[in-house]
Amino acid sequence: MSGTAPFTFTMRGIILALVLTLVGSQKFDIDPGFSSRKSYLYSYEGWVLNGLQEKNLAKAGVRLSCKLEISGLSENIYLLKIRSPQLEEYNGIWPRDTFTRSSKITQMVSSCLTRPFRFEYSSGRVGNIYGPENCPDTCINIVRGILNMIQITIKKSQNVYELQEAGIGGVCHTRYVIQEDKKNSRVSVTKTVDQNNCQEKVVKSLGMAYIYPCPVDMMKERIVKGTAAFSYKLKQSDSGTLITEVVSQQVYQISPFSEPTGVAVTEAKQQLTLLEVKSEWGSSPDISMQSYGGLRYQFPAVLPQMSVQLIKTKNPEQRIMETLQHIVLNNQQDFHDDLPYRFLELVQLCRTANADTLESIWRQCSDKPRYRRWLLSAVSATGTAEALKFIKSRIRSDDLSYLQALLSVPFALHLTKADEHTVPIAADLVTSSRIQKNPMLQQLASLGYSSVVNRYCSQTSACPKEALQPIHDLADEAISRGREDKMKLALKCIGNMGEPASIKRILKFLPIFSSSASDIPVHIQIDAIMALRKIAWKDCKTVQGYLIQILADESLSPEVRMMACAVIFETRPALPLITTIANVAMKESNLQVASFVYSHMKALSKSRLPYTYNISSACNIALKLLAPKLDRLSYRYSKVIRIGGYFDNYKVGAAGDVLVMNSPGTMFPSAIISKLMAYSAGSVADLVEAGVRVEGLTDVIMKRNIPFAEYSTYKKIKEIGKALLGWKELPTETPLISAYFKLFGQELAYININKEVLQQAVKAVLEPAAGSTVLKRLAGQLRGGVAAQWTQPLGLGELRYIVPTCTGLPLEYSSHSTALARAAVSVDGKIAPPLTGDFTPSQLLESTVQIRADINPSLYLQKFATMGVNTEYFQQAVEIQGKVLTRLPMKFDAKIDMKLKNIKIETNPCREETEIVVGRHKAFAVSRNLGELGVEKRTAILPGDASSNIVEEPFKPSDRASSEDFTKQEADSMSRKYGYSSQEDLRHVTGRKTHKRDICVKLHHLGCQLCFSRRSRDASFLKNTYLHRLIGEHEARIVLIPVETDADMDKIQLEIQAGSRAASKIINEVNAESEEEGESSLYGDIQAKLKKILGIENVFKIANKTRHQKKRPSKKENTVLTELGADPDTKHPSSSSSASSAVSSSSSSAVSPRRKEAGDEDENNQEEQARNKDASSKSSSSSGRSNKSSKSSSSSSDRSSKSSSSSDRSSKSSSSSSSDRSSKSSSSSSSDRSSKSSSSSSSDRSSKSSSSSSRSSKNSSSSDRSSKSSNSSSRNSKSSSSSRSSSSDRSSKSSSSSSSSSGRSSKSSSSDRSSKSSSSSRKSSGHHSHGHHSRHVNSSSSSSSESLSHHSHEHHSGHLEGGSSSSSSSSSAHSKIWGAHEIYQYRFKSAHRQEFPERKLPDDQISSSHSSVRSSHASSRASWPRFLGDVKTPVLAVFLHGIRDDKKIGGLQLVVYADIDSIRPRMQVFVSNLTDSSKWKLCADAAVLNDHKAAAYLKWGRNCQDYKVSSELVTGQFADNPAVQVKLEWPKVPSSVRSVAEWFYKFVPGAAFMLGFSEKTDKNPSRQARVIVALTSPRTCDVVIKLPDITLYEKAMRLPLSLPVGPRIPASELQPPIWNVFAEAPSAVLENLKAQCSVSYNKITTFNEVRFNYTMPANCYHILAQDCSSDLKFLVMMKNAEEAVNLKAINIKLGNHEVDMRPANGQVKLLVDGAESPTNVSLTSAGASLWIHSENQGLVLLAPAYGIDKLYFDGYTFRIQVALWMAGKMCGLCGKYDAECEQEYRMPNGYVAKDAVSFGHSWILEEKPCRGACKLRHSFVKLERTVQLAGVASRCYSTEPVLRCTKGCSPTKTAPVTVGFHCLPADSATSLTDKQMKFDQKSEDMQDTVDAHIACSCEDENCST
Predict the structure, then answer these.
(1) What pLDDT is recorded for position 703?
(2) Confidence at residue 1436, expressed as pLDDT on a 0 to 100 scale
(3) What's the Cα-to-Cα distance from 1799 to each of 1760, 1774, 1788, 1789, 1819, rounded to whole Å?
(4) Helix (H) or strand (E) holding 85
(5) N or C: which end of the chain has fewer CB within 10 A?
(6) CA 1084, CA 1079: separation in Å to the nearest integer?
(7) What is the mean pLDDT of residues 733-759?
(8) Model confidence, pTM
(9) Quick check: 1297 and 1101 in contact, CB under 8 A?
(10) What integer is the mean pLDDT of 1166-1192?
């Protein structure tokens, strides 16, 4: 025994050790729990804080601290008691301030919190929670927040794991990490919850029903993101694992602008700490308890109040009446400041009131219109079931006027909360008889109801049938009764509901799916397809299946198919479906549909929005399948235009689509739909959509009451139609205009204008009697006076998004906005003489109307955005509040004298400060509680002493550091410095400062000033984000402030005088001669006298010129107006050019950098010179030296330019060799890029002739390619012609004097692109003229006499713009030398340069240069005055001035002169300041200078001399193509204008890139922009845009419509067009739009420009062109004439006449109604006329009333041009004129022929046997051979008729034609007779070629048939 005992003991020890080891290797049982025999005391603290994440900004929050006692009642059931709860508020600067105790909130909340609660708890999981009955939701949720802390899921086998765990915020993704401390029996657990990734998230949103989550990237881009972290400490004991401490922290952040750092944060924190454990049982409470569910947060049945206010709702009736009274009494004269706030309060109170309360209030208000209006507006915005009941009872009892019902019912339905209570009430309301009776009310109410259903069904999984039934019943009734208006309404409502259950109803309206729908109009079918759009969101695949069938079915209307295509793309189809669509488009014969599909795909392929990424890439692939020719279609074809953008930084984007659908019958779009979609942070919303559709409108407009059906030819045309196999008239289009408007994808309203309404409208416009009744009624109302006051809420917007925090308190993000409008109107008037009973509108033209009006409209917008805790007891939130108040008071007396064309308006001056626009914005932390109503704590989020960055602190020098004044002064200067800077600069200013900006425009003469002031203080100094800029205070105001004047202002008067009396009204005489001119002429007098005394001329002249420039550097343009006055056509001897100094074009100055032929081909190569600036020549311009220099020549490095100046006695001329492009220019001649100069002589003063100076170069500019210049002078010259030029900034001064030798005119030859010119004054002194190809910025060629020493450096830059040899500068020569050109390297050649070349004239008739448009002549003064006032009276005079007590006049005067009727229209406008001291003026001049050039400029400042902007438009050639150039120059503009332009300029490259332009950096002139558009074909153009730093260009840009341009002509033969492009271009484009059909020999060109060859069978009439509409206005037939092979004869039937045109004896004979007629004749049928006359050996017929604009026939050639409104209504050999080129061979039966011959044969008119000469018939034929079809022997019959000779005739000539055949089994008993078998309606089994008879020989013709 003793031996076994130790062994037994040892074994026991081993077993015990093993057991212990096994136990140790496992986890402790750490499922936490509570003992049912003990009670546990915890301390609890939980708080929530809202604000920005930065420190030292205000926050708002609440904290709850209490003791918790948990004791066991039974197994897994525990009792929770909350002891001494304490609630504290936080409203202050974080973290400086502290929480403050709030006894009121504590008192309210503790009443329910201190009662006992029971909960189930097992293995760390919380089960059901029980509490006292009717316990408030807030208290229960706080308890859930506390118990949520002890919810923990422990997995025994893992330390790290993830799962979806239930909690207070729903079932969300949770991650656990467990760490054990075995020594101390402790476990720590970390739990993190991802609030963005939940299976079932607890969230409540209002007002977001129409914002859809995107299918892609939903996770990444959320505006609100949240996470929570829990830390647990567990301790193990014998009785189990106990939770000793829990700390939880939760963060929700919102980034309203999707900025990574611009976020506002809500932080929630909880702490639960175990204090003690007692061994005592919990006793079950006596009170009865009810279950409140589990931990999941429960929203209260009635949501808490709006987070912008907290109001008591105990006695709603009394409160509503008080609020109504406050609103009405305080807003009678103007808006009270708290009106939006009060209106929201009224809405909130109405939400708490039941229907009985509202009825009671209505009874009190029903007889008070203002109270009633406000109450109805508030109830409509309430959105509760009670409010809907109230509206329903109002409608039933007929308490509302029509207008009130129209406003209340739709608003109430669109704003109502959609749930199971409101839907039945809404259905009852919409189906009530009173609403059904009124079509407009029914429409708006039904659309509103369908939106309610849409919102309701989007919340439920299955939509109840009952909700859809009212709309489905409406659709069924509409179909059964065939009522189009009801069909439209039902489909629009079904579209709003967007429920898949409605698809069956929709298919009943589509012919492809319902046989009964074949008669349904196209516009209803389109509505049916649009109704599928919203359904596709829920059942995409089904909708796509139906739509692709519609798109592929060619029998449907093109518009229906295009709409199907648009809807398919909205469903975001995948690649396979998109490929299918591309396949359909590839085989598509209808170009409208093909163009629409192609452009839609192309638009989508370029989209950059994230949610369109998949469809965009799929479209890119599918486009490869489609023919690129579809891209080249004109505007006549349907298109989709898409413009969009996406900002990745902010995750926002927008896209706008415009769908343009054309119908064959119109030249212009028949339907346009435009929509705007917005994308933000993973969500997308259809913001706005509008559509317009027009049908048959041309018929209504063109209807001239012509009785076409009564004409004799009408029946004849109808008979002929019947003779054509299968011909039918085109169906009559029902005139219709329909439009609709959608907001957030919901259709709010639509309008349908039918034929009757349209005809009435046209009648009212065209017939004076209809219009006069309206005028009479208006006049009567005016006489009686109108006085009204109206205040109306326009809208209420409410968005709310609520999520629970871990504390159990709800976090709410909300936005509330209100818009209120007010108008007070008082108008009184009288008409003299009074209107008589038989009033006609012409009486008004003889009357004087006096009106006294006081109109005061205003608009008040207020928006609140909040973030924070919102419960029924308290609100702790961050609030951003913005409001804008706009007022526009107008009080005036007006007198309108129609007879004298005078209008006089008087108003009172500013007496007091008037705010026109005020905008305020502020952000603060706010705390409210129910215990202290009316006392809300507010703290500005950005405190007044917000700390700034150390970087922004000013440096303080030690010697001044103590000086307070210094730092203050520095700070002030700093704020001033940054006052006008950009946002980026503002952030460098310290946060403490308020940024101020005040701009005032003083109008002294009107006694007032308009001020814009801005104050802003924001947090952008902390972080530069949009959110931080919103935080703070901002204010902007536009105010009208009175200004003190010398004398009191009595009235402000505006007077407008038109017509001949305008001249008599002018106060300040308009004089185009500026002051400077007067001085200059005085200077000229002195000069002339000195010349006489001293006997010197030339030296003085040169010195004088230099002196002019030295002494008067600020000299501006000599004239104000003449630049446009110079006429290049006018030729006259220079001897007559007197007084030219007053009229001459002044040289380019600061205002005008250079004067040359603007728009010339030789734009002075300024760009190139700027590039080669280093090499450009230097020129000395010293006056002293230039006086003495008589001869100077200089040579340059590469190629020298020699120029010789001639002395008094000798005339030497040397020419310099030049580069590829050179020009020899006599003085004042304009070379390629030569200056514009004008020369003239005067008796007593020298004329001043201008040359252009270089503004930017400090030297006289010479170019890379110098011109050859020859100057000559004569010995005996007495008068000199000088030119002056001054320039500003950094401009060089250069002047040229022009002369030529008297004995012989100097010859000047220039290159192809330069013009030749000579100019002389008979006796002139010698001087130099250098024409340079300057490429300097804003410089032109300088003709230098002042700078006699002048170096010209020639450089061959590799650039191609240099030019070619002097013999030819055409682009072909360029390409030979340099290779292919880039488009921007060509030069623009002005057309008028070629039209007015220099002519050599006899010596006595040498005229001034024609090269420059600005050269002016004496005769031009007579023929075209510089100042129109000299020859024309003003057409309009306007005066705005203050009438003062001292009778002084001050104000503005505007005078307009116009010469519109002349060949060259011109207009001048002068605005001058009437104040004595001021010389401010504005001058504008616009004129068409010649057939190829128009110019305009605007000058303003002192005497119109300070600033200038000019523009020119020139036609010409560019790269051998007709082109137009527009040039804008701004030599000097105010800095404010420049800064705006520079800001805008930043966007130009980006915009150009988006539009597909290429870009090149180029040194173009710095103050000039040029746009050159060259037509390379009727549908394409090249565009070059030259801006100061860049050149943008694009080749072959597509034009929306064809332009009238002929084939390309070689440059050598190119002639400028002889028509006036400005006057005739619009009509030419319009003419070009009109279609023309022509027949010449055997060539036929249709209206659609399809060309084919067709030989007409002899003797048979073909229908060439016919009106196929129901009017049958005309018919044109043609046949081969008997005289000769190529001769034709035509027959025209129109009106009551039949016109024949036949060739006879080499002429065309005219027969009218069978009788020969003279060739010039006018015929009139009732209501319509036609004219026939001879032209070009042929006859022309004009019948515009019938639709024939012009018909020409000369026996060989036939041309017909029809009116635009005949588009789509034609038929015959000329086609339908519907732009459908692919379907051009359309036969009379509507089918498309296989070839041109079949097509021609189908339009042959059969004649009766033996009566007519045509022996051909249309017959169906049988294929002679038997065909094996699918293995069966078959006999085949043609599906279309073939030409055959009549019975008894035999064919003498045949032609092969391709036809389709329908086959039947060979053994079937079918015989071929036309009447028995309609083979043209059978399917086509095969195609084959058969012979058609085209000529017959008839020996025994059968005349019986």
Answers:
(1) 65
(2) 92
(3) 20, 11, 9, 11, 15
(4) strand 77-94
(5) N
(6) 9
(7) 86
(8) 0.76
(9) yes
(10) 39
Range 1301-1322 average pLDDT:
36
Question: Distance (Å, rounded) from C-alpha 1861 to C-alpha 973?
Answer: 94
Report the distance separating Cα 1329 and Cα 1215, nearest Å.
Answer: 11
Long-range contacts of the stretch 1471-1476 (C-beta < 8 A, 24+): 1471/1500, 1472/1068, 1472/1070, 1473/1005, 1474/1005, 1474/1067, 1474/1068, 1474/1439, 1474/1441, 1474/1449, 1474/1450, 1475/1004, 1475/1005, 1475/1450, 1475/1451, 1476/1448
Closest C-alpha to 51, from 87, 91, 102: 91
Mode of pairing for the β-strands spanning 683-695 and 204-206: unpaired
Say yes or no to pLDDT of 1073 above 70: no
Q: Which residue has the tokens 């079937």?
A: 1868
Contact in structure between 311 and 348 (CB atoms under 8 Å): yes
Residue 908 and residue 913: Cα distance in Å, rounded? 13
Sheet with 1636-1640, side-by-side order of all strands: 1651-1653, 1643-1645, 1636-1640, 1757-1762, 1748-1753, 1738-1743, 1728-1735, 1721-1725
- Name the residue among 865, 885, 869 with its Cα closest to residue 877: 869
| Distance in angstroms (rounded) separating the CA atoms of residues 1170 and 1564 | 8
Q: Indicate the pLDDT class of residue 315, thresholds 50, 70 and 90.
A: confident
> What's the Cα-to-Cα distance from 209 to each of 86, 456, 799, 852, rounded to whole Å?
39, 9, 10, 49
First to last CA, the chain: 144
Q: Which residues, in sequence order, are bridge partners of residue 73?
A: none
Closest CA to 1797 of 1899, 1889, 1677, 1687: 1889
Task: Provide the Cα torsion 1528, 1530, 1536, 1537; round to 10°.
Answer: -10
pLDDT tens-place string over residues 1025-1041: 888 988 889 999 999 98
* Percent helix, strand and coil across the chain, each to the nearest 5: 30, 35, 40
The CA distance from 200 to 189, in Å, is: 24
- Report DSSP letters for 396-452, one per residue: HTT-S-HHHHHHHHHHHHHHS--STTHHHHHHHHHTSHHHHHSHHHHHHHHHHHHHH
Kindly report the CA angle at 1430 between 1428 and 1436, in degrees rounded to 5?
A: 55
With a CB cutoff of 8 Å and minimum separation 6, the contacts of 1213 are 1204, 1206, 1270, 1271, 1272, 1306
| Helices within 963-1051 (DSSP H only) | 964-977, 983-986, 1026-1030
Instruction: Please confirm whether the linkage preceding 833 is cis (ω < 30° from 0).
Output: yes
Checking if the pLDDT of 1683 tops 80, the result is: no
Element (H, E) at 1397: none
Residue 1066: which pLDDT band, with cuts at 50, 70 and 90?
Answer: confident
Task: Name the DSSP class of 1883.
Answer: P
Type of residue at 1531: P
CA triple 1445-1447-1451, angle to 5 deg: 100
Q: Indicate whether 1245 pLDDT > 50.
A: no
CA dist 1223 → 806, 1128, 1366 (Å): 88, 20, 7
Cβ atoms 1350, 1203 nearer than 8 A = yes
Rg from Cα positions in the chain:
45
Q: Rounded to whole angstroms, how far apart are CA atoms 80 and 282?
A: 9
Q: How far apart are CA 1252 and CA 1256, in angstroms?
A: 12
Question: Amino acid letter at 1824?
Answer: E
* Residue 312, phi then psi, degrees to nearest 5: -80, 135
pLDDT of 364 higher than 70: yes
Which residue matches tokens 């030569």?
Answer: 1234
Tokens of 16: 């015990």
User: What is the tens place of the pLDDT at every residue in 882-922?
Assistant: 999 999 988 899 999 988 889 999 998 888 888 999 999 99
In this predicted structure, the answer to whether residue 931 has a pLDDT above a threshold of 70 is yes
Give the type of residue at 1096. I
